[in-house]
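Exercise 7.
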Amino acid sequence: MLAELQKEDRTNYILQSLNAGISREELAIGLNHSDYRSLDMYMRRHGYTWDKEIQNYVPKEKKISQEQVNGSIVHPGKINQIIALFEAGHDAKEVAKKLLFPNHRSLADYMKEKHYEWDNKIRNYVPMAHAESKELQEQKNNEVIEEQVSDSFINQIPRYLIPGIAQNKNVQLSHLLNQLVLDFSYENNITQRQIFESAILEFLMKHGYRHEVKALFQK
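Solution. The predicted structure, written as tokens, is:
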């Protein structure tokens, strides 16, 4: 069944599966490739290349030389991919499709949320004027929330080494929430398991299980 997926569905399936933690080797078997190298060749033919840092395929346009980086702004995570694709001449609908946004409007909303705006002159996104001051204001408004999570590392993502044997747990999520998790995992180079474990520990500590959580790490 998987081997019969259409080209676009097939590439999206590969990207989402790798984001979910499935290995290239497992995907190659499921899609009737001889091995992961054959999978690499397939993705290269369709405009993607392997990125070792995030352990997933990215559009070839994202790969830029060191000469291009020197003296220019390097934008974070998915923003860099979006800007690179527009620079390569893709329109908004094509960029949204390549990066798995539902549509070009959700892409625009994403960039606005990240404090980027469309510049008609250069036909691309640029950082908003006064974006830094807006972020500082948001941080000020969130001080109360940050103080409540006193054991967390501010401006860092905590990664916990939890004792015990790993077990599978099936949890159903809204597809919109699931996409947020996938995006966060990709942009911050963190596995979905680390996201969920950290979130659960933070929740338990905030709701009366601080002692039990601390005892967990003493085992």
